Amino acid sequence: MQLTEANIGETYIIQDIVTDDEELKSFLFSLGCYSGEPITVISHLKGGCVVSIKDGRYNIDKGIAGSILI
Relative to the CA of 50, which of 2, 10, 20, 41 has its CA 20 to 30 Å away? Predict the structure, then answer.
């Protein structure tokens, strides 16, 4: 399922990043967002969601969240 469908407060394991945009993949990798890493949705916002990856919290838009499979 996509990250946009995740429940708030639950920790999931990232299965894959589905995009042809190499810049986006590189950006997500720099945040620690790659296959096998845990990710927690802190809250859903109108335009995206707030997630916790490793020791950081990030606000990502729906387009990016839709490319992260958990």
Answer: 20
Q: pLDDT tens for residues 15-64?
A: 999 999 999 999 999 999 999 999 999 999 888 999 999 989 999 999 99
Task: Write down all domains in the chain, each with its CATH number in brackets.
Answer: 3-69 (2.30.30.90)
Note the pTM of the prediction, 2 decimals: 0.88
- Greatest extent of the chain over all pairs of C-alpha atoms, in Å: 29
Does residue 25 contact residue 48 with C-beta atoms inside 8 Å?
no
Determine how β-strand 38-45 pairs with β-strand 48-53: antiparallel
